[in-house]
UniProtKB/TrEMBL annotation:
Name of protein: ASCH domain-containing protein
Superkingdom of the organism of origin: Bacteria
Length: 162
């Protein structure tokens, strides 16, 4: 099993909001189970993304809560409410394909984007994700850049949580 660190609220969107494409700048050969690790940094771009906001509101309605938190998400106030959802494994998912962006994989697939700091990324790879399995409770864990291998004890915990 491999792991991928993703900033919030993108990590939430993968595990709970139906985000089935992760946009990256590298094509990987790996396919298989992938632990989604929420990094310790908030993505303002993600907090302002209409797709994330729509998924968040739909989740709030589905769980019986008022959809009043969208403005909080947009302003980054929910950043604090996600508490344990930073620096932790949120669940697992299957990485089933990786391919260059070609105007495909809408609505989550992108062909270019501006990352934190204003750098534009144009050569985008789509990581195609299926079968999200969120954990009942996040597991605190230190993340890493790129595709990384979790400690064996963590892999055992994740496999037993299936």
């Amino acid at each position: 099993m491999k792991a991928l660190t993703v900033q919030q609220p993108w990590a939430w969107a993968i595990m709970h909001g139906g985000k089935n494409i992760e946009n990256r700048t590298q094509l990987w050969k790996y396919r298989g189970p992938l632990a989604i690790h929420a990094g310790k940094r908030w993505s303002e771009r993600g907090g302002n993304d209409d797709r994330v906001l729509s998924a968040f509101i739909a989740d709030q309605v589905r769980t019986g809560l008022e959809p009043k938190y969208a403005d909080m998400l947009r302003s980054g106030l929910l950043e604090e409410d996600l508490g344990d959802w930073y620096g932790a494994i949120l669940g697992t998912i299957e990485l089933v394909d990786v391919h260059p962006a070609a105007g495909c994989c809408r609505p989550w697939g992108e062909s270019a984007y501006f990352e934190h700091g204003g750098r534009e990324r144009r050569r985008i790879a789509h990581l195609v994700l299926e079968n999200a399995r969120p954990l009942a409770e996040p597991i605190p864990c230190k993340g890493a850049l790129g595709l990384w291998t979790p400690p064996i004890g963590l892999i055992t915990k994740l496999e037993s949580a299936k």
